[in-house]
Protein 1
Amino acid sequence: MLGVIGLIWCVAWFALGKEGPIKDEVVATTAEAPRVPYSRLFFAPTFIGSVLASFGAYWALTAGLTWFTAFIVRASASRREKPATFRSCRGSSVRLTCF
């Protein structure tokens, strides 16, 4: 359903969307923008926060993908050949097949 909505949005965007007028004063001010040193960019709190958040997200993803299946197999004492069904907090069941 969302794919159909996205396709309709794209068709409408291509049919109705258009570029706005480019003003000469905007182009002139961007050409004269001051240079910012890399040290100021790399030590900005926003950049440091994004690097730490990205590191944490990738670390959690990697740990989950690497160790989750092995942990569930050991914790549930199930065999690897047998699919296991687990209940989540919402009550929906998740079916895992451990190879």
Protein 2
Amino acid sequence: MTGALRPGASFASFAEFESALKSFQRVNNVVFVVGSSKSIAWANKKLQPGEVPYADELQYKHLTMKCKSGGYDRPSTSKGLRPHQR
């Protein structure tokens, strides 16, 4: 599937995904950045003995992209207590 970035799309390579993402960003005038990721090298280090390692051709085990202007995550300082509740 070339150049079609839509829900459920699958890509043969990460380069194909990047190409579709760049095209989508250009057409819709948005910028996506990496929100969080786990590399294959990291994932392979965390495998238990006997588990099959991920292919080296892959770049990420997990990748979350988010809109650059979508705000930022604010860590909660709440302790979960509600002192004035009965």
Protein 3
Amino acid sequence: MIRKVLIANRGEIAIRVARTLKEMGIKTVGIFTKNDENWPFVYIVDEAYPVSGYLNIDEIVEVAVRAGCDAVHPGYGFLSENPRFAGGDNIRGTYLHRSIALIYGACWG
């Protein structure tokens, strides 16, 4: 069961994913860069963590682990189009790190 999801995106995409997850009773974790720290999506999520960039896979997975996430939703663009992050065949449920699943292909929001 997924209880907490890191949203690896920003802006309107992050807001839509966060709203949908909250409607499902799932806790949300956001990431933001220095330039985005005052954007609305940072305040919509239950927890938000600073990152150096939205394409830094190792850092994003590290934040997901530290925050206790069960899954990562890549959103649109950024990491969702990166084969290294998406896990080859882009199958929903690909595991990124131990028990953190990648939610891929879900049209949420």
Protein 4
Amino acid sequence: MEGGEGSRFKKDYKKGVDQDEARRRRSETTIQLRKDKKEDQLSKRRQSTAPVSIYLYTYSLLFNTLIITINIIIIIIIIIIIIIIY
């Protein structure tokens, strides 16, 4: 390549592409890819926390049932003691 031919090649290379427009599109594409990746990560995080909340809810119900059962047993014991005393 001679000096004149190389500069002509650079000048004519991708003549139909506007550099500023191409740079803007690359920037927008990069930003959109980052947003999509972030949303995907958040979606995965939300999906992984859903079963934990279900388990917590289930354990909460079981705990409340256990407390109620203990209270009933205590009331029955008190009633039996009252019956025995009188």
